[in-house]
Specification:
The complex is a heterodimer. Chain A is globular. In chain A, 48% of the residues are buried. Chain A contains 14 helices and no strands. The mean pLDDT of chain A is 88. Chain A has one domain (67-274): MetI-like fold (Orthogonal Bundle). By secondary structure, chain A is mainly alpha-helical. Chain A starts with a helix and ends with a helix. In chain A, helix 4 crosses helix 11, helix 9 (140-165) crosses helix 11 and helix 11 (181-210) packs antiparallel against helix 14 (242-274). Chain B has a single domain (60-294), classed as MetI-like (MetI-like fold). Residues 1-15 of chain B have low confidence and may be disordered. Chain B is mostly helical. The longest helix of chain B has 40 residues, at 255-294. Classes of the chains: A mainly alpha, B mainly alpha. Chains A and B meet through helix 2, helix 4, helix 5, helix 6 and helix 7 of A and helix 1, helix 3, helix 4, helix 5 and helix 7 of B.
Chain lengths: 275, 298
Amino acid sequence: MNRRKFRSPLPGFTSTLSVTMFWLFGWLVLPLVACVLKAATLSPSQFFAAAWSSRARSAYWLTFGASATAAFVSVLFGLLIAWVLVRYSFPGRRVVDAMIDLPFALPTAVAGLVYSTLYVQSGWYGQFLVPLGIQGYNTFLAIVLMLVFLGLPFVVRTVQPVLESLEGDIEEAAASLGASRWQTFQQVLLPSLLPGMITGFALAFARGLGEYGSIVFVMGNIPFKSEIAPALIVAQLDDYRYAEATSIAVMLLIGSFTSLGLINWLEARNRRYAS
Amino acid sequence: MHPSFQRHKRVAGRMVATEPAWLRFLLIGSTIGIVAGIIVIPMIFVFYKAFANGFSTYWENLFGNAEARHAIKLTLIVALASVAINTVCGVAAAWVLTKFRFPGRTFLLTLIDLPFAVSPVVAGLMFVLIFGRQGWCGPWLQEHGIRIIFSWPALILATTFVTLPFVARELIPLMQSLGNDEELAAVSLGANPWQMFWRVTLPNIKWALLFGIIQCNARAIGEFGAVYVVSGRISGETDTMAVLVQKLYESPGAMSAAYAVASVLTLMALATLGLKLLLEQRVTQSLEETAQTTGEAP
């Protein structure tokens, strides 16, 4: 029946669709529904009391602020790195290129462990930075540093292919019309790189919102001060306050779904413009 | 989402306007500085700390300690199980989503990406809400003496959730671009479904599949947040390597042990990178071959 309906003589529609449905609904939809249902057992006022308490609000601020700052820094660094990797050749270029992927592969706990040791006063970096008043441990800066490490590859890997696909002739044209190199970059190159930069920003931002594994090493998780939203969820769970934990989780989900939706919307828009 | 193996179509060689030499050196210098400072030096630091007290201490930290041995074993088992689930289901999903058109297809495609937008901690929490003592299935599970949360099944469930997209994400674009022709030919010549899959589909997708498996595996081995929530952190029982690193970090005097475990994880990450580089070359090659045989641009 299925074959006739969808007019494909290829085998395996029913069986692979059942496996896929089991996989996606069992592993993704069911847990999500469980989460929303749990939050729905609270009355609206209870939900807001839990999800919008002052402790929760300061956790959101810290999480969103640090993620946005880190994503912004990642875009700046990522653009520079992608530019250098695509446009210039220099000894060690391939090694640098390969190393960009390390944060994708390295367990975040390892990254957190290292960063927590490097930036304290006795650490390799801290011995120079702490006397200058730069505290890279247990501060806002510590989260940002950690998230830049995690977010950087997203930006490089979204900007790099765009840069590679740019043809040289528009730059030639700009130069022959008398534009300076900086004007060409600003007015010709940057607009075509912008979509990739925005996608990279959103990916790095979404990654930052959910990150817990590495942040737990570099932060003290002091309520109101240095507690990110995922850490607050863990703290509530450790106190067996499931409904409160779930309310904060729902807020976090809304935040990251919005950024993922934004990526998809931007990508769809770019495809429309490109074609 | 990871445009990783579509790289190196360099424009160099016909470079038009370029920057003055001093600016080039400045930009290259800052790139090397940033990558070294953020990524390379921290990685070297892991090994420096792990071996700071000599090789015998390192060995003792890793294999003389029952907890560390157990964590290594558990991590590998959990990673193996989640990679297996996500590979089998990922191939099935890629097959049904690329070879057929049916209502709801776009919705399923969007669903696959979902775990990228869910914090691992939230993922863990979801499974606690279902299988935990106060969860939806909690009372029933307790009656029947089944333990999921704070035990290894929860680790597999949560890790599978977090690593779900990796294999399917690599396969779907490739299988889409390959089209149905070869499989249709095989079927019309009388191949049964398994013959078709093993002899036609699999050879076409093997490098991308391997690529996805490697990425999935790397993430599964390093998963922390989700495992942290569902495992209950029971020493010598549900601690994976990543959680053990955190525990050792927090217990006084165990810093070198933490770095010893971390060094194993770092070696695994480096092996992943190496394999990825190798595969990237193979994938580009096979894409070019496909392009040649079908006469289309990759």
